């Protein structure tokens, strides 16, 4: 029989066999056509057009599962790592799952606790993907108790249509135990819900240094606990990392640690949370010679509010400092009752948030920095210095004035140490900014809605009277929506306070889109300012550009 016909019969037989199962997935594609714009130092790439495309396909049949993702960068859109190139399979796995066991071979994402010891995840907006390629087993012998085992290498890059993994090997175990679920009958009426967990992660990388004796196996381990009583919650996690000389820390032999504690209360109309984090020397990578956002095994959650307003989110974002920081955050939300003088007919919601981050104290008393141990200081939990990295104090008032009009008033005071969290090449030392935002949303009828924002940022002056960084900014936004299918918006960001009058530039952008069920098409044209784009304390630099962006997403 002809080999081509035989191959076709094999494929058809596989499709018919798999047709009893369930296929799901999604498609995403983003295309840019960019122009030269010397006013904002935007350059047209040689190819003129740039495109990122992805297609996920997932299959399940009983306990069997499989999936894959095709990726294509021809070439990549601006801001993505320059080694992302080509078309090929960037993610694939096979597995089996039932009530007791979940086995995955191939690529998988996973997180232990809050991620202090281990987190493998993807954030496509950041161009970040440290998926593990190997094996994972999740065992659930009884309800409320599970053990996870992980073994593999991390994805480092995607070049020439192929995934290239990091140099090191990751081996990890994690256990979760929920007391109330395990002892359902005995503790059914017990008012406190208790959950505990423990993690152990080890990386292996050969010693590649001729001058030093580097540890080839580096472990990180610790535990966590969560208590819940009625409306109150308290949880915390502590991780200790063994000696891990790396490019990040100058190849010192200090140990590292990280701790996160959260306390919260919530009921209808009222909620608050208090959080604290202490981290020192917690850059934990599967390749000790990498930097920036490459090959991170763990994740240090940012203790600051995720902002969405243009000026607040894009001008002075804060990037988590894995070599050391001590951070605190308080968040409070209260809804004034309907019908009261302050609540009005529909109620008024007040939100207050504050976060701050400092450099830890590094104690050197009694430590000989010249001895062979290469331990250069001692760090203690929550022992902060007076050196400020970041501070954000903000509040918002949300009130529905009538059936059609919603008004939001917000204020933000953001202070950032540009010498540590480098956000600008034009600033020195501490940058302090005051930002005011007025947002109004008007519902014309059941389908038509219009929303407007006015934002203003005012930046501090230096002690010599000079304007710090790029000076003051203003942003205006108007958005019109025809539910459920259409939207159009216009945004303009204006650097009216720049000390260099030639750089007092407008950044206009027009966006329109169409949505139908699981299909979304969006087209935008305009300028984009150069700067950092951050999500959860992880950032990437986006160069200035001027041009058209077309995106398409589809789920099935």
Give the helix proportion (percent range).
under 10%
Instruction: Measure the end-to-end span.
Output: 37 Å
Class based on secondary structure composition and strand pairing: mainly beta
What's the total helix number?
Answer: 3
Mean pLDDT: 91
% residues in beta strands? over 45%
- What is the number of strand segments? 31
Enumerate the spans where pLDDT stays under 50 for 5 or more consecutive residues. Answer: 1-5, 7-12
Shape: globular
Assembly form of the protein: single chain
Q: Can you put this structure into words, describing what you see?
A:
The chain is mainly beta and 556 residues long. 4% of the residues lie in helices and 55% in strands. Mean pLDDT is 91; it is low at 1-5 and 7-12. The protein has a 24-stranded antiparallel barrel. Strands 6-7 form a two-stranded antiparallel sheet. It has a two-stranded antiparallel ribbon with strand order 8-9.
Any key phrases for this structure?
556 residues, mainly beta, two-stranded antiparallel sheet, 3 helices
Write the layout of secondary structure elements.
Layout: H1 3-18, E1 22-34, E2 49-61, E3 64-73, E4 86-97, E5 101-108, E6 110-111, E7 119-120, E8 122-123, E9 128-129, E10 132-142, E11 145-159, E12 162-165, E13 169-178, H2 179-182, E14 192-204, E15 217-229, E16 232-241, E17 256-267, E18 270-280, H3 310-314, E19 324-336, E20 348-360, E21 384-400, E22 405-417, E23 430-443, E24 448-459, E25 473-482, E26 486-494, E27 506-516, E28 519-528, E29 531-535, E30 538-542, E31 545-555
Antiparallel strand pairs: 1-2, 1-31, 2-3, 3-4, 4-5, 5-10, 6-7, 8-9, 10-11, 11-12, 11-13, 13-14, 14-15, 15-16, 16-17, 17-18, 18-19, 19-20, 20-21, 21-22, 22-23, 23-24, 24-25, 25-26, 26-27, 27-28, 28-31, 29-30
């Amino acid at each position: 029989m002809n080999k081509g016909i035989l191959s076709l019969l094999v494929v058809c037989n596989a499709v018919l066999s798999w047709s009893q199962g369930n296929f799901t997935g999604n498609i995403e594609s983003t295309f840019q056509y960019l122009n030269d714009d010397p006013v904002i130092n935007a350059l047209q790439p040689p190819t003129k057009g740039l495109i990122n495309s992805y297609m996920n396909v997932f299959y399940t049949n009983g306990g069997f599962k499989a999936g894959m993702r095709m990726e294509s960068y021809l070439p990549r859109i601006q801001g993505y790592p320059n080694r992302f190139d080509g078309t090929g399979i960037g993610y694939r796995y096979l597995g089996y799952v039932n009530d007791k066991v979940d086995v995955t071979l191939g690529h998988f994402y996973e997180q232990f606790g809050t991620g202090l010891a281990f987190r493998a995840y993807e954030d496509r907006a950041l161009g970040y993907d440290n998926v593990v390629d190997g094996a994972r087993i999740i065992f659930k012998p009884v309800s409320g108790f599970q053990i996870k085992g992980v073994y593999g290498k991390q994805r480092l890059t995607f070049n020439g249509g192929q995934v290239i993994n990091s140099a090191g090997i990751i081996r990890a175990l994690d256990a979760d135990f929920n007391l109330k679920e395990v002892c359902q009958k005995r503790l059914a009426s017990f008012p406190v819900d208790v959950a505990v967990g423990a993690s152990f992660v080890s990386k292996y990388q050969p010693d590649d240094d001729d001058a030093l004796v580097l540890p080839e196996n580096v472990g990180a381990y610790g535990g966590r606990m969560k208590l819940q009583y009625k409306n109150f919650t308290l949880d915390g996690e502590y991780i200790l990392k063994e000696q891990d000389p790396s490019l990040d820390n100058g190849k010192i032999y200090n140990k590292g640690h990280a701790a996160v504690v959260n306390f919260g209360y919530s009921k209808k109309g009222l909620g608050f949370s208090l959080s604290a984090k202490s981290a020192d020397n917690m850059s934990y990578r599967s390749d000790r010679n990498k930097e920036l956002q490459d090959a991170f095994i763990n994740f240090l959650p940012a203790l600051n509010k995720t902002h969405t307003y243009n000026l607040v989110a894009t001008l002075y974002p804060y990037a988590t400092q894995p070599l050391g920081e001590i951070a605190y955050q308080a968040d409070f939300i209260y809804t004034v009752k309907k019908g009261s003088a302050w609540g009005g007919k529909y109620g008024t919601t007040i939100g207050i948030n504050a976060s701050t981050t400092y450099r830890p104290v590094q104690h050197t008393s009694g430590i000989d920095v010249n001895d062979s141990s290469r331990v250069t200081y001692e760090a203690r939990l929550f022992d902060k210095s007076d050196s400020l990295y970041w501070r954000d104090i903000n509040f918002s008032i949300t009130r529905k004035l009538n059936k059609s009009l919603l008004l939001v008033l917000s204020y933000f005071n953001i202070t950032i140490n540009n010498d540590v969290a480098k956000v600008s090449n034009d600033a020195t030392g501490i940058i302090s900014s005051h930002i005011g935002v007025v947002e109004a949303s008007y519902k014309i009828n059941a389908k038509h809605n219009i929303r407007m924002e006015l934002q203003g940022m005012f930046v501090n002056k230096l002690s010599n009277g000079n304007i710090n960084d790029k000076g003051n900014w203003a942003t205006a936004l108007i958005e019109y929506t025809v539910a459920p299918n259409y939207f159009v918006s216009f945004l303009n960001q204006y650097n009216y306070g720049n000390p260099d009058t030639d750089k007092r530039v407008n950044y206009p952008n027009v966006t329109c889109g169409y949505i139908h069920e699981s299909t979304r098409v969006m087209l935008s044209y305009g300028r984009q300012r150069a700067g950092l784009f951050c999500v959860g304390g992880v950032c990437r630099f986006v160069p200035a550009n001027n041009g058209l962006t077309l995106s398409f997403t589809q789920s099935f």
